[in-house]
Protein backbone atom coordinates (compact mmCIF):
# COMPACT_ATOMS: atom_id res chain seq x y z
CA UNK A 1 0.00 0.00 0.00
CA UNK A 2 2.67 2.55 0.76
CA UNK A 3 4.20 1.87 -2.61
CA UNK A 4 0.99 2.92 -4.35
CA UNK A 5 0.88 6.30 -2.52
CA UNK A 6 4.45 7.14 -3.38
CA UNK A 7 4.28 6.06 -6.96
CA UNK A 8 5.23 8.89 -9.30
CA UNK A 9 3.31 9.71 -12.39
CA UNK A 10 5.19 9.17 -15.59
CA UNK A 11 6.88 12.44 -16.65
CA UNK A 12 6.64 12.91 -20.40
CA UNK A 13 7.69 16.62 -20.44
CA UNK A 14 11.32 17.57 -20.66
CA UNK A 15 12.62 20.98 -19.55
CA UNK A 16 13.12 22.03 -23.17
CA UNK A 17 9.57 21.19 -24.21
CA UNK A 18 8.18 22.93 -21.08
CA UNK A 19 10.07 26.13 -21.98
CA UNK A 20 8.85 26.00 -25.56
CA UNK A 21 5.24 25.63 -24.41
CA UNK A 22 5.52 28.64 -22.07
CA UNK A 23 7.09 30.78 -24.84
CA UNK A 24 4.28 29.88 -27.23
CA UNK A 25 1.70 30.98 -24.64
CA UNK A 26 3.55 34.27 -24.09
CA UNK A 27 3.70 35.03 -27.84
CA UNK A 28 0.01 34.27 -28.24
CA UNK A 29 -0.87 36.57 -25.34
CA UNK A 30 1.12 39.44 -26.91
CA UNK A 31 -0.58 39.07 -30.28
CA UNK A 32 -4.10 38.71 -28.85
CA UNK A 33 -6.15 41.92 -28.53
CA UNK A 34 -7.98 42.62 -25.31
CA UNK A 35 -11.73 42.05 -25.70
CA UNK A 36 -12.70 45.65 -24.74
CA UNK A 37 -10.36 47.34 -27.24
CA UNK A 38 -11.96 48.54 -30.45
CA UNK A 39 -10.23 48.68 -33.80
CA UNK A 40 -8.29 51.93 -34.38
CA UNK A 41 -8.72 53.17 -30.82
CA UNK A 42 -5.56 53.69 -28.83
CA UNK A 43 -6.94 54.30 -25.38
CA UNK A 44 -4.70 53.86 -22.38
CA UNK A 45 -5.92 51.95 -19.38
CA UNK A 46 -7.62 54.10 -16.74
CA UNK A 47 -4.79 53.70 -14.26
CA UNK A 48 -2.25 55.16 -16.71
CA UNK A 49 -4.42 58.21 -17.52
CA UNK A 50 -3.97 59.72 -14.06
CA UNK A 51 -1.94 62.90 -14.17
CA UNK A 52 -0.17 63.77 -10.99
CA UNK A 53 0.37 67.43 -10.24
CA UNK A 54 3.60 68.54 -8.61
CA UNK A 55 3.42 69.66 -5.01
CA UNK A 56 3.42 73.43 -4.57
CA UNK A 57 6.65 74.72 -3.11
CA UNK A 58 6.71 76.19 0.36
CA UNK A 59 7.48 79.86 0.68
CA UNK A 60 10.49 80.65 2.80
CA UNK A 61 9.93 83.34 5.38
CA UNK A 62 12.66 85.19 7.13
CA UNK A 63 11.68 86.79 10.39
CA UNK A 64 14.30 89.53 10.43
CA UNK A 65 13.57 90.86 6.97
CA UNK A 66 9.83 91.04 7.62
CA UNK A 67 10.34 93.07 10.79
CA UNK A 68 12.68 95.47 8.98
CA UNK A 69 10.19 95.91 6.16
CA UNK A 70 7.42 96.75 8.60
CA UNK A 71 9.55 99.38 10.35
CA UNK A 72 10.64 100.87 7.03
CA UNK A 73 7.05 101.11 5.85
CA UNK A 74 6.11 102.93 9.03
CA UNK A 75 8.84 105.49 8.36
CA UNK A 76 7.88 108.17 5.91
CA UNK A 77 9.51 108.20 2.50
CA UNK A 78 10.36 111.86 2.80
CA UNK A 79 11.91 113.69 5.70
CA UNK A 80 9.73 115.82 7.91
CA UNK A 81 10.40 119.56 7.72
CA UNK A 82 13.30 120.45 9.96
CA UNK A 83 14.82 116.96 10.19
CA UNK A 84 17.81 118.02 8.08
CA UNK A 85 18.40 121.16 10.13
CA UNK A 86 22.05 121.54 11.00
CA UNK A 87 23.44 119.29 8.27
CA UNK A 88 26.80 120.36 6.87
CA UNK A 89 29.43 118.69 4.73
CA UNK A 90 31.30 117.74 7.90
CA UNK A 91 28.48 117.16 10.39
CA UNK A 92 25.24 115.25 10.66
CA UNK A 93 21.83 116.89 11.22
CA UNK A 94 20.77 117.83 14.74
CA UNK A 95 18.14 115.06 14.81
CA UNK A 96 20.79 112.32 14.34
CA UNK A 97 22.06 110.45 17.41
CA UNK A 98 24.11 107.24 17.92
CA UNK A 99 21.04 104.94 17.97
CA UNK A 100 19.35 106.37 14.86
CA UNK A 101 20.47 108.18 11.73
CA UNK A 102 17.90 110.47 10.10
CA UNK A 103 18.74 109.18 6.63
CA UNK A 104 18.95 105.38 7.15
CA UNK A 105 16.61 105.09 10.13
CA UNK A 106 19.07 102.73 11.86
CA UNK A 107 22.30 103.07 13.81
CA UNK A 108 24.36 103.36 10.60
CA UNK A 109 25.32 106.79 9.30
CA UNK A 110 24.13 107.58 5.78
CA UNK A 111 25.59 111.10 5.47
CA UNK A 112 26.35 111.85 1.79
CA UNK A 113 29.78 113.36 2.56
CA UNK A 114 30.82 110.72 5.11
CA UNK A 115 30.82 107.64 2.91
CA UNK A 116 27.21 107.53 1.71
CA UNK A 117 24.97 104.49 1.87
CA UNK A 118 25.90 100.86 2.34
CA UNK A 119 24.84 98.32 -0.30
CA UNK A 120 21.78 97.07 1.59
CA UNK A 121 20.35 100.60 1.84
CA UNK A 122 20.70 101.15 -1.91
CA UNK A 123 17.84 98.66 -2.37
CA UNK A 124 15.42 100.53 -0.10
CA UNK A 125 13.54 103.32 -1.86
CA UNK A 126 12.57 105.30 1.31
CA UNK A 127 16.22 105.45 2.38
CA UNK A 128 17.31 106.44 -1.12
CA UNK A 129 14.80 109.29 -1.28
CA UNK A 130 15.94 110.63 2.13
CA UNK A 131 19.59 110.32 1.01
CA UNK A 132 18.83 112.31 -2.16
CA UNK A 133 17.05 114.99 -0.12
CA UNK A 134 20.15 115.29 2.07
CA UNK A 135 22.38 115.54 -1.03
CA UNK A 136 20.16 118.28 -2.46
CA UNK A 137 20.25 120.14 0.86
CA UNK A 138 24.07 119.98 0.91
CA UNK A 139 24.20 121.19 -2.70
CA UNK A 140 21.87 124.08 -1.81
CA UNK A 141 24.06 125.05 1.16
CA UNK A 142 27.17 124.91 -1.05
CA UNK A 143 25.52 127.18 -3.65
CA UNK A 144 24.48 129.67 -0.95
CA UNK A 145 28.03 129.71 0.41
CA UNK A 146 29.46 130.50 -3.06
CA UNK A 147 26.80 133.19 -3.61
CA UNK A 148 27.68 134.89 -0.31
CA UNK A 149 31.36 135.29 -1.30
Q: What do these coordinates show?
A:
The chain has 149 residues and is mainly α. The chain has a domain at 78-143. It has four helices and no strands. It has helices at 2-5, 15-31, 63-74, 125-148.
List keywords for this structure.
4 helices; 149 residues; rod-shaped; mainly alpha
What's the Cα radius of gyration? 43 Å
Sheet with the most strands, sense and barrel status: none
pLDDT < 50 stretches: none
Q: Oligomeric state of the chains?
A: single chain
Order of helices and strands: HHHH
Shape: rod-shaped
Chain-wise SSE layout:
Elements: H1 2-5, H2 15-31, H3 63-74, H4 125-148
Condensed summary:
By secondary structure, this protein is mainly alpha-helical.
